[in-house]
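Quick one, T. Sequence first:
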Amino acid sequence: MGRTVTKSIAIIGEGETEWFYFDSLRVACRYLFKVAPDFPQHSDINHILKLVESYLSKQYDFIVCLFDMDRLFQFPSEMQLYQRAKKKYAAKKYAGRVMFVETNPCTEFWFLLHFLPNVVFRRYENYNQLLPELQKYMPGYEKTKRYFIRTNLYKYLTENGDLERAMSNSEKLCQLCQESPEDLIAYSEVHRVIELLNGV
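Structure tokens:
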């Protein structure tokens, strides 16, 4: 880590959690990627897709879109839009430049994977179900700007948890989800973003 990224990468998150986590990772590892939007806010699928087109037109090498699946499951019309966009950007024309990265139910599950000793099959309907489990490892965690400003997320997770463990757990859970998607177990694809950053 600590290398200079020479490719242009935009990481687009739905809200503050993603923004603060990836911004803290960017600073800690001295990466030059851009976290978007510039100011953390809750973005819907339409806003995220507009940003994708904007970064494509600016010739970014990679555009990473982070999605909390609990929100998409809650809004069927957004889920349909998401599925269409995911299929569109998977086309050869985009040559792997646009990456859709899912976490079910939310980004906090990626945080939890830093602490779990092995792969655990869990179902969380939403953030509120996951929060008590996460707070065992991150006491006082709350999804607020005040907490995110006070706590360097990446530093906390790597010093108190284990990034390699999170990566391994994440990969295994994604594989299991592909084998039996009907189970709707919690999973995170954030390991793909870390691999991308480490590979450029």
